[in-house]
Predict the 3D structure of the following.
Amino acid sequence: MIFQGKTVIVTGATSGIGAATASAFAGEGARLMLTGRNAERAELTRKKAEAAGVGAATLIGDIRDPDFCERLVVATTERFGRLDILVNNAGVIHCETVDETTDDQWRETMAVNLDAVFFMSRAVLRRMKPQGEGIIINVASDAGVVGVPKMAAYCASKGAVVLLTKAMALDHARDGIRINAVCPNVIDTPMLDDVFRQNDMEAEAGRRVFASENPLDMVAAPKDVADAIIYLASDKARFITGTAFMIDGGFTAG
Ligand code: NAD
């Protein structure tokens, strides 16, 4: 129960990596503010957290809206009295080259994957600074560290998240705030199914192709990312800030 008494916001907590991260924090005693777009799925994640014996609340909304981000942070501090950890996890993907990408696809990718990280981080940093402590973890991607074919907007957004992470880590280390990014490769979530759909790939064949692209030959589970987030948020990682922590089966090692 290493996060007992701590409060965590998880964005995109209604599915995939976000839901697994929420469960992992609940298992370690943290109180949770969960957000995403789907009220029913958010309620499921909240109930699981409460079954683990922790306080949990949901606020449904669009993370692209800076006013919603501010409301989310206010609701968290009003409900739980403090705010210790932010996991910026919500994300979208469009599998296109630049010449194929529409204005709307580009804007949606930047708005969810990058702008929301900025809005949420700004809102929580204004609370964490006076506390003199805090943790932010951004879910970036291996596609934020190396280029990946047919993911141009996604790569641009995640690369920006990696450097925003490093810049914020430098700015706020002396405020007692550690800020890191995790960079997963291929994780079994609804987003991966979406990638298969966008590429006209049958799911099983798609899994085999994507797994074969990393040296460990695996499609990993959402929990593999959640475990790394738990580690980075814990005191065991007290000397780690500004890192892009690869969870990629060696994809970017060569
Ligand atoms: P997912 O589709 O299961 O989850 C995405 C979450 O983001 C959902 O909860 C969704 O509601 C939320 N979201 C999207 N747009 C939103 C908006 N406008 N407002 C509020 N919430 C919004 O996918 P996932 O794979 O669990 O993705 C989680 C994160 O992991 C994303 O940032 C993604 O880019 C990253 N990632 C995933 C993989 C993978 O292989 N699945 C690999 C690398 C990085």
